[in-house]
Amino acid sequence: MSVLDRFRLDGRVAVVTGASSGLGVAFATALAEAGADVVLGARRTQKLEAVRTAVEKLGRRAIAVPTDIARPEDCRALVDAAVRTFGRLDVLVNNAGISSEIPAAQETPKQFREVVDINLNGSYWMAQAAGAVMLPGSAIVNISSILALVTGGLPQAAYSASKAGLLGLTRDLAQQWTPTKGIRVNALAPGLFTSEMTDGYAEGYLEAMMPRVLAGRVGQPEELAAALVFLVSDASSYITGTTLTVDGGTHIA
Known about the structure:
- This protein is of the alpha/beta class.
- 43% of the residues lie in helices and 14% in strands.
- The chain is built from 8 helices and 7 strands; from the N terminus they run E-H-E-H-E-H-E-H-E-H-E-H-H-H-E.
- The protein has helices at residues 22-33, 45-57, 72-86, 109-131, 157-181, 196-199, 205-209, 221-232; strands at 13-17, 37-42, 62-66, 91-94, 139-143, 184-190, 243-246.
- The chain has a 7-stranded parallel sheet, with helices on both faces.
- Helix 1 packs across helix 8, helix 3 (72-86) runs parallel beside helix 4 (109-131) and helix 4 (109-131) packs parallel to helix 5 (157-181).
- The radius of gyration is 17 Å and the shape is globular.
């Protein structure tokens, strides 16, 4: 197998949660470009259909499944749909998540739990469902955040805690499943990327953050998607239990 062939995903099936917009769309299309068929899960079903069409235009097969990952039964249904339609599941991208910017003294238990229930618990339920059917050689990538490692100057306790929890989840699932199931589990920790989340930041926030970004700019979704393809492909076959920061150097600035 050549070096470039190791990045190919021909014949593999990938599930992407949070696939209806933003980085989820970039992940789904990148996986399709690398040769995978894609199972798209999200709560916003209308937008999912547009992503399914985009994947099919790339010559790959795709299905869209309404999914709320905070519900374990929805996670199992998404995995079941993948196996029923394509006969297998090789890749899980735990991308679905929500954010909040609420001062810690004001955040209610309901608000905090909602973030953790989707970002952390939902990723666990998805991994649990996928791990039950994945064969050796499969890969799971949890989409964490640079805010699991550094602060961003915003009141994001729930979001930061949930994304830090994903790093611990990644390590533990890797030590459980790589030796016994042959499933690699890794995490991506993105920095500032153009997305719905950055669109919602207050005016001037991104500019104020640039001194902390060694690359001097916001990242593009395709740059993060390329890192994802690396982590789920045979190009990273000797990597498990690790977190890859893709942040333009923010974590060391």
